[in-house]
Amino acid sequence: MTADPLWFGPVERPLFGWFHVPAGGRARSGVVLCPPIGDEERRVYLTYRKLAESLASAGLAVLRFSYDGSGDSAGTLDDPDRIEAWTSSISHAVEAVRAAGVDQVAAVGMRLGATLVTRAAGAMDPPLAAIVLWDPCVTGREFLRHQQILLSTIPGQPAGDEDGVDTPGYHFSAGLADELRHLEITPVATPATRTLVLARPDRPAPGRLDRALGSGPADHLDALGQGELLDVPPLSAVIPWETMGHITIWLSEVAGPTEERVTVPRADEAIVESDLRGRPVRERAVRLGEIGLFAITTEPDGGGSGPWMMFLNVATEHHIGPGRLWVDLARQWARHGIRSVRFDISGVGDSPVHPGQMEGVTYARELLDDLPELASGVSPGDPSDTVFVGLCSGGYGALEAAMALGARGAYVFNPALSSESMNKSSAEADPRRRAFRPLPVPLVRLAVRHGRTAWWIWRTYRQFAVWQAPMAVPAAAVRSGLDVFLICSVADTQPLREVLFWRAFGERRLRRTGRFELAVVPDMDHVLLFGRGRRAAARLLTQRVLDRFAPRDVPLAVAGEPEPVATGGEKAVPRIAAVAVSRGRAAPDARSSR
Questions:
Q1: Got the DSSP string for 86-127?
Q2: What does the alpha-carbon distance between residue 398 and residue 471 come to, in Å, rounded to a whole number?
Q3: Which CATH number is associated with domain 269-420+469-593?
Q4: What pTM does this model have?
Q5: Tens of pLDDT along 291-337?
Q6: In CATH terms, is domain 2-261 a member of 3.40.50.1820?
Q7: Backbone angles phi and psi of 236, in degrees to 5
Q8: Which residues contact 245 (CB under 8 A, 6 or more apart)?
């Protein structure tokens, strides 16, 4: 089996996806995998990849993709006519499979993706051979309500925006929310299209689903494992292997007996938008390093200038960032002449594993090899001409890589620099780690039965052993010449400031270097699920990046209103949430003025 990244669809609005082709390059049928919307797309990304691999192993050609304005495809969630654009994206995906040489095509849709599949299927000629409706949303209203309930369970939720609906990681404008409330699943009117409906056994398909789908024949199976996939924290999610097996068998039986040659065009580069002067912004899918780590570069016309901005994975999620923030920032910064790369470390997203490595391990020791290889891949002449950007465990990785390479800087959201699961006796321990403050082994043993006591001892000890405190990590980075910017929620600031030395003296010394800033965003949560805090944090980061690195001949674009952000003490103070208004101000260190 082969899997190739490609852009397809309209040249002016390219869609991004992965084409999986069976071994030998021939297929009995084609399948397009239509993802859910919003946070649910993030949650099922690995499941869809595994399903694509399973189907390809059964002799089917598979295209998994992101809708217009989602994932790595062009556009944004704020663009108009989203439902029409998403429906058209499905049609373009089907056309791409047929253009590759496969006439018989089926579609799989999960949640709102299933709703969209029924909408797209009615307009297709020739019709789809089969559709699989996996835990379908009967209405868009049902989808929005479920997402709002999930967001409400997260502690510390700020007041929502009056204009629109907040969901975990994604904000739906008032117009789009209204469109979704009127979206309903529709009957598959074509008799030639076979249908499989997979409903959750713990939430049986309501009668209105049967009524909505009409009287046409359909097969029914249970969507096993759906709760363990969607209703748990992402790091606890379990791939629904049994359900995937049922889908593979069903689609394999529907597929025709004749194999067709599959020819996937090479389309690893696309123009995704224009910069402030109307010049193209290009993205390219690349493989980097010894094992071929997957990455997407974003560059303005002419290649851009300054350091490469390196976006790290959030935990074990694929490369688009929280609420697709890495994609949005990469393209926004490219409009100002700044180049970037978002990538998957080994065992995560679309990157392979090293020999003997497990998939989906947070803080995997292999990242210590991956990050220098990625930097060398995009900046072979000078891997240190990079700035690493990360969130949580990715924030740790950003500091680790920046210090190892002597990079230009590390810009980090809520860095996770200490963890019970990471200690000197754990499988991921490595003497090369410099940006982590692991719990000593005796305290790890104590924590098994007396967790609170162990952490109290550890926190007390760090009041005297100040080099073991989390703030010692960015301090070491600043001393080595890095430009360090920490953007934290109120809760994530606490471990950085709990040691008296750093709170009273150390942080002030770091700020005086001109290479350190700690900004506290009151409405921000740990993983940037709340829209208000996520937008405020993104504006602060963009302000820093453009102030430091944007070419002086690129026009300024100021946007936004004052946001409550604390940069010194705990009290929030107004600060203009805009891009650089003092172009040319650089950190005192010569590295920041290359």
A1: HHHHHHHHHHHHHHTT---EEEEEETHHHHHHHHHHTT-SSP
A2: 15
A3: 3.40.50.1820
A4: 0.91
A5: 999 999 999 988 888 999 999 999 999 999 999 999 999 999 999 99
A6: yes
A7: -100, 0
A8: 54
